[in-house]
Design a protein that fits this description.
Elements lengths: L36 H11 L3 H8 L9 H23 L1 H5 L7 H5 L5 H29 L5 H16 L3 H29 L13 H16 L5 H5 L8 H29 L5 H9 L2 H35 L7 H21 L2 H32 L22 H14 L11 H5 L6 H26 L1
Helix pairs in contact: 1-8, 1-11, 2-11, 3-9, 3-11, 3-15, 6-7, 6-13, 6-14, 6-15, 7-13, 7-14, 8-11, 8-13, 11-12, 12-13, 13-14, 15-16, 15-18, 16-18
Length: 469
């Protein structure tokens, strides 16, 4: 294995870094496992403090036309359930000490994992682009004279400044942002409670099973969408004591923040005209909405650093797939971070309203693609191998005991994709079974159950055959 100024052996201690993170996709040395559950809770509390979360919460009372109470109940159920699957991935970080998608090599092989890593990379970049556009629109809602393109560039630069330092600074910035936006959201909710909702707005709409279950799916998939991130943030926690705290810190922070911000969105959606969330917020909180929207606009740029951080780790993982054993250090991370920011900003600059709608559909499709990976990964980690992995094999050219291609796991993955198709509900496609049951989105649930169960069955049969020989 070659070592240069930008390459070091997997697991070798990084030079003293100060604020600048030098670790990338290699295992975090035990001497640097100084992370805490408190810090992890802070970053996940801040991850959902975004205008996009408000818009998502508003779907219950706008798109699905549910009464506010039913919409909120669906939001609670969806986030509580989806958060469990997401946070279980977080407990893997302290044990293995590597980014989340590196772990996919244990299930699919070093080359077989390429597809899911690529999908996750595109997903992270997609979130980055979406937040750039939504943040710029929020800022324009406060200051109509602001040029959207200038706002996008400014947000990208702000994200870049934070991301170059690495995870430690990202955690601090997002945690502080969580406190600021959290206070603004709580004040907004308090304002609404004291002032009251316009007459009849809370009971407007009507309960439907389709709308209710669909909103549960929105909340659940919102949480599951974070699954490819979580070990990226928890891998600095101590191996011997970090798994359980990582789960609860991640679950508590992400679910709590999502529920509070989506609740605001739900109420705003109940009075929004033509789905205009910013206008609905102004209707409910008056001039204070200006402060809230401004806060959201700024935090969109700050929190986006987390999306680019994970996109960078995944891009480096993709490159390492073809340069086995290459562990990039600071320079590799900085170059990749810069490229991701520039490409993402360029796409955001040419985006139109129609493009964003199509792009959102594309991102939603990618979430379906990641569902089977999540199920396979969790079953492999908690049921099959019970957390025992040869981390060094993740970086060997031949994949060590995991090989380069795990064909049975890949077949299960493809089956997991296929079974979701009849249940899928997208703006451009509704599966036949979903149509027959009134447009209820059960694809994510079916994908998790079939992929996880089939992988367990295939793995157990394979091990039984090996023991018989």
């Amino acid at each position: 294995m070659t070592t240069t100024s930008d390459t070091r052996a997997a697991g070798a201690p990084a030079p003293p870094s100060g604020l600048m993170e030098r670790n990338t996709i290699g295992p975090i040395p035990a001497s640097e496992r100084t992370g805490s559950a408190r810090g992890l809770f802070g970053i996940w509390l801040g991850v959902n403090m975004l205008p996009l979360t408000v818009v998502t919460g508003a779907l219950g009372t706008t798109v699905f036309a549910l009464p506010a109470g039913w919409a909120m109940l669906a939001i609670v159920i969806g986030n509580l359930v989806g958060g469990v699957f997401m946070a279980l991935h977080a407990s893997q970080g302290p044990q293995l000490g590597v980014p989340q998608m590196i772990q996919a090599r244990a299930q699919f092989g070093t080359k077989g994992a390429l597809l899911v890593v690529l999908v996750a990379t595109v997903l992270f970049v997609g979130f980055f682009i979406s937040n750039l556009v939504v943040g710029a629109q929020s800022l324009q809602g406060v200051f109509p004279a602001v040029d959207t393109k200038a706002a996008i560039i400014g947000a990208a630069v702000l994200s870049m400044i934070i991301t170059v330092f690495g995870l430690r600074v990202i955690k601090v910035v997002i945690t502080v942002s969580a406190i600021v936006i959290g206070l603004l959201v709580l004040v907004s909710l308090g304002w609404i409670f004291v002032s009251g909702m316009p007459g009849g707005s809370l009971s407007a709409g009507h309960f439907t099973v389709t709308g209710f279950v669909s909103m549960i799916a929105v909340g659940a998939v919102w949480q599951v969408a974070y699954a490819p991130y979580v070990s990226d943030y928890s891998r600095y926690l101590p191996a011997n004591s970090g798994a359980r705290p990582a789960f609860w810190a991640t679950y508590g922070g992400s679910v709590l923040s999502a529920l509070v911000v989506m609740a605001l969105g739900c109420l705003v959606g109940a009075v929004a005209q033509d789905g205009n969330v910013a206008g609905g917020l102004t209707t409910l909180t008056g001039k204070f909405a200006t402060v809230t929207l401004l806060g959201f606009a700024v935090v969109s740029g700050l929190s986006n650093a987390g999306n680019v951080y994970s996109a960078t780790l995944n891009t480096l993982t993709l490159i390492e797939t073809f340069r086995s054993g290459w562990i990039p250090a600071l320079r590799g991370r900085l170059v990749t971070t810069t490229v991701v920011h520039v490409l993402g900003a360029l796409v955001a600059l040419v985006a139109t309203d129609g493009f964003i709608t199509s792009f959102t559909n594309f991102i939603t499709t990618l979430l379906y693609v990641l569902i089977p990976w999540s199920a396979i990964n969790l079953v492999d980690y908690f049921v099959v191998r019970k957390g025992h992995y040869d981390v060094g094999a993740f970086f060997r050219p031949d994949g060590g005991r995991y090989g380069t291609w795990n064909v049975p796991a890949l077949v299960v993955y493809v089956v997991g994709l296929a079974v979701q198709v009849p249940f899928a509900v997208l703006s451009f496609y509704v599966g036949p079974i979903a149509r027959a049951i009134g447009g209820i989105d059960l694809a994510w649930l079916v994908g998790l159950a079939v992929s996880g169960g089939l992988f367990l069955l295939v793995t157990r049969r394979s091990r039984t055959a090996e023991e018989a020989v």
